[in-house]
Amino acid sequence: MKIAVLTKAIPSYESSIRVDSSGKWIDETVVNYVVNESDAYALEEALQIKESASGDSEVVVVTLGSEANTSKVIKDGLAKGADRGIFIKNESTTTDPLAISKLFADNLKSENFDLIFSGLQSDDMGSGQTGVLVGEMLDMSTATLAIETKVDGDKIKVKRELESGWFQWVTLPFPSSISIQSGINEPRYPSLKGIMGAKRKELNVLESSPESQTQSFVNLFVPTNEKVTEKIVGDTESIVAKIMDILKNKLKVI
Amino acid sequence: MLQFSFLEQIALAIFLLSGISFFLYHLLLRLKIILKGKSNFSIDELPKRLKRVFDEVILHKKVASGGRKSAGILHAFVMYGFIFFGLITINHFGMAFGLPIFNDTIRYYYFLFIGGPWAILCSLGILGLAYRRFVLKPKALGKFSSTSALVSVFIVTLMTTYFIDELHILSGASEKFNWWLHSGVIGGFLFLIPQSKHMHLVLSPFNIFLRPFQVPSHGAIPIDMEASEEELDNLLLDLSRLSKDQALDIFTCVECGRCTDVCPANRGGGILDPKYHFILDLKNPMLESGDANVVDKINVEAGWECTTCQACTEVCPVGNHVEKADEIRSFQVLAEGDVPQEYQKLLRNLQETGNTEGSSSSELLNELPVYSADKELVLWLGCFAKHAMDPNFVGSVRNFVKILDSAGVTYGVLSNEQCSGDPANKLGDKLTYQLLMDQNVEELNKVKNVTTMCPHCVVNLQKEYKKYHEIKYEVKHHTQVISELLEEGRIDINPGSLEKVTYHDPCNLSRTLDEVSAPRNAIKAAAPEFFELEESGKETLCCGAGGALWWKKDSGEGRTHLLRAEQVIESQTDTVVTGCNFCYGMMNQGIGPLTPAGQEEIKVKDVADIVADNLNN
Fold first, then answer.
1. What average pLDDT score do residues B44-68 get?
2. Which residues from B are below 8 Å from A when comparing CB atoms?
3. A155-161 and A141-152 beta bridge pairing
4. B186: Cβ–Cβ under 8 A, 6 or more apart, which residues?
5. Which chain B residues are within 8 Å of A80, Cβ to Cβ?
6. Residue B555 pLDDT
7. Which of B99, B423, B555, B569 has the CA that lies 20 to 30 A from B112?
8. How many whole angstroms separate alpha carbon B594 and alpha carbon A116?
């Protein structure tokens, strides 16, 4: 079984985000890039499937982005136990899911993966589309929001999280692309042997650039916080009247 | 005088030789396993080691410590009984071969002044201990011990037969029978001792002599990222191996359970039972495999519960370094890659940002003056203060700064201060630890004097880093700096805190750094109504935050993190002072919710707070 895990480098939550001089992207030099949270769960799920599978299996960690931001992501995946890495080098700052999925699909087509796992969504852009789009482009069955998986021969059973506490079991024939929800498992920590061994593992670097983009940033800004406090004074009658006026005319909630 | 036939002499010789062979076989078997441990025994500082043997073996200082005065005295009676019976025993067997070492006069006086009185005391001792074990049944001693019962019977028989012999109560065949009974019991000991906890009788003096001075004494695990596969395999093999000293500990254990009695995790309702998890669980695997590579036999879950407070090691009467959280955690993290999720987040923060909280900046760091070569002290903040893990503690840092200003001490912070690595070190992630340590040592080796309010930082900067690097600077805990400033008269304190004040000793400061007086000097200068908590000094109870447990999100059923705060409330103090930011945070978190309705909440202060509050200028 051949499993690919799509992994993204995202700015860490604790990074201080600021807009760069173009006004259309963030200043990447002050940002600390880390592995997208749900991608870590996707990798763990793939590793567990590989470990419990009979016969030869392979987990390939795949990432796309600029060299500076993604190097840690691949290293981390290999250290945790992925067998090899594919780095789709893309120095553009495109965030267009369709363009990105096209790059993944074009570069991964020849690999003929049985399974492609991706995190449910990236914690920076949060589109949640890449896994499904790649699956469609490569003519695979697709499912999103997996909270449990069971491989059964050449099929995979997936428990999907629906709304308001509902779940759904679906069975998908291979090849299949599935997006994984955070919390599905307990991701491992890279062991010393894993970290040292990662250097000796195969890493394919593929050059790419998006052909066309369907979306781009017009303007990027940090929301400003405003704190406006109005103190209402007077007797009860006039206070009530004033509050009613604010609720009705200013905030328009009643 | 009894006469022995040649046949009797042969029988006795066979009996004694088989007993001695059995004893030596088991002793050598254990010695062989001990020598398979890693790192070597150290016998540096000989006078200090001999003094320790004198204190702890001859004077029974640890055996009779704490609430165990009477049990300790009873034990001393038995031990001295055994020592004084040495000559009697040689004489006893020498007689059978016509070679007594005592003539009748010496024998008479030895009995009258030494043998007789000590036989009585020894009997009283063993009967008292038997009463304690089998009637009072303290929980720590555990299940019924058949060897202990046997030893009690043996010793009483030994003493009774001795008296019968010396007082010539019997004659003829029954006198001979009495002699053989006495001999049988002594031979019995040779068979009983090596396979039971009574081996401590032979090993504990050596174990106490050889015990490493450093507490804790875990060896360095240097990781070379360029190591070959073979070197890496050797390193991983070493992770599963106990040190020689730890291996000796296992065979010396007397199974008294004091380590479990004082363990904060155990007392808080956790599963960790250091007597078993860190010691006895490893004994059979060692004997079965004939090797010391048994770290993986330590209960993993129990290992994660340990606060690494060293209370177990401090209390051990036979000189064991009990705690093995470091060993099992290093094994889990480095060899297995198995780390609880909450700690993975912490370790990633350390790798990515150099601090435990994953913060990108620190308000406090920006507010304080930056260190330059013309200043006396580097003020090392530590993550707790730097990232306001308890926002109130920032006030304590400002108070310490106020004290330094008042004394005219110049100081500054290092803008590139990284976490000391304490949580990574304690969690067994020696790789992340080294990453932080290497950066810190490079910066710190450019300066001379460092002070910090975090005992965890002191332990690492001063003691742990030395295991890996040459250290050119000196680190003092801020309570030591304050105490010195007081002694030198550079600050003047008015004893103005008139309410009841007590002090909670942080484990890292008291047990690891051996500092119990400096904070007390400072507090007593400010607070005349100072009193001690029940468990204080080196016998302090951990606040529950040690061993990186501050970051343990799922506290589960355990109450480890509340025990000490409860004790403080029960003490009915008005103020509790501590010398560690983590203890400060734990007290603040615990005392609020635990204070009964209608009772005023106890104030939590750092030593710097109570001193700054009462500064005389």
1. 94
2. 223, 225, 227, 229, 232, 235-236, 333-339, 341, 344, 347-349, 352-353, 357-361, 431
3. antiparallel
4. B89, B92, B158
5. 337
6. 55
7. B99
8. 52
Residue A208 DSSP SS3? coil
Starting at the earlier edge strand, list the strands of the sheet with B575-578: B530-532, B501-504, B575-578, B603-606
Locate B53 and state its tokens: 């043997």
Calculate Rg over the CA atoms of chain B. 28
Domain count, chain B: 4
The letter for the amino acid at B593 is P
CATH topology of domain A2-207: Rossmann fold (3.40.50)
The DSSP secondary structure of B37-89, one letter per residue, reads SBS-----SHHHHHHHHIIIIIS-TTTT-TT-HHHHHHHHHHHHHHHHHHHHH
My answer on whether B305 and B331 are in the same domain is yes
Instruction: Read off the pLDDT of residues A157-167 as tens digits, 9 standing for 90 and up.
Output: 999 999 888 99
Closest chain A residue to B359, measured at CA: A14
Which one, of B72, B73, B102, lies nearest residue B85 by Cα?
A: B102
Same structural domain, B28 and B130: yes
Q: Is B53 a member of any domain?
A: no
- Say if residue B431 is in the same domain as residue B539: no
Say which CATH number the domain at B530 has.
Answer: 3.40.50
Phi-psi sector, B39: left (phi>0), alpha (psi -120 to 50), beta: left
Residue A223: per-residue pLDDT: 84
Q: Are B25 and B161 in the same domain?
A: yes
The residue among B195, B222, B255 that closes a domain is B195
Instruction: Report whether the peptide linkage leading into residue B528 is cis, meaning its omega lies within 30 degrees of zero.
Output: no
Integer Cα distance of B564 and B502 in angstroms: 13
Structure tokens given for A181 = 């929800």
Say which of A14, A188, A194 has its CB closest to residue B359.
A14
B154/B29 same-domain check: yes
Instruction: Return the structure tokens found at B576.
Output: 């509790």
Q: Do the chains contact at A14 and B358, CB–CB below 8 Å? A: yes
Prediction ipTM score: 0.83
State the amino acid at position B28 in one-letter form. Answer: L
| Domain span including residue B353 | 342-487
Q: Are residues B160 and B25 in the same domain?
A: yes
